[in-house]
Amino acid sequence: MMVEVQLWAHLVEYAPQGQKAFNLKLDSGTTIGMLLSILEISPEIPKVILVNGHQAKAEMSLTDGDEVVIFPPAAGG
C-alpha cells in the first residue's frame, strides 16, 4: 500500500532525502508505531500525528491512500 507522509519542523530530519512530503510504500497492516520505527522517529520525541486530518495513536493501522502528518506539539500563549 502507498501512504503520503508529511513531516514538519525539526522532524523533517527523519525524512528520506530530507523531503518534507513524500510517498512511502508500506506492507498491509502497518501501524503508525511501525511507520515511526521505519522513519527512526523515537517514541520519546514529542509529536502530534494526524491521519487524514484526525489525531491518531501508535496502534492505528494505516490503509492505502492515507495521509499522515507528523509535527511537534505547539506551545506558547
Your description of this structure?
Helices cover 9% and strands 29% of the residues. By secondary structure, the chain is mainly beta. It has a single domain, classed as Beta-grasp domain (Ubiquitin-like (UB roll), Roll). A five-stranded mixed β-sheet has the order 2-1-5-3-4, with no helix packed on it. The N and C termini lie far apart (40 Å). The mean pLDDT is 95.
List the helices and strands and how they pair.
Layout (H helix, E strand, L loop, with lengths): L1 E6 L13 E5 L6 H7 L9 E4 L2 E2 L11 E5 L6
Parallel strand pairs: 1-5
Antiparallel strand pairs: 1-2, 3-4, 3-5
Key structural traits:
single chain; 77 residues; mainly beta; Ubiquitin-like (UB roll); five-stranded mixed sheet; 1 helix; globular
Question: Concise description?
Answer:
By secondary structure, the chain is mainly beta.
Note poorly predicted spans: none
The helix/strand class is mainly beta
**What gross morphology would you assign?**
globular
Number of strands: 5
Largest sheet: 5 strands, mixed
CATH superfamily descriptor: Beta-grasp domain
Radius of gyration: 12 Å
What share of residues are in beta strands?
A: 25-35%
Helix count equals: 1
Helix content: under 10%
CATH architecture: Roll
Distance from N terminus to C terminus (CA atoms, Å) equals 40 Å
Strand order of the largest sheet: 2-1-5-3-4
- The CATH topology label is Ubiquitin-like (UB roll)
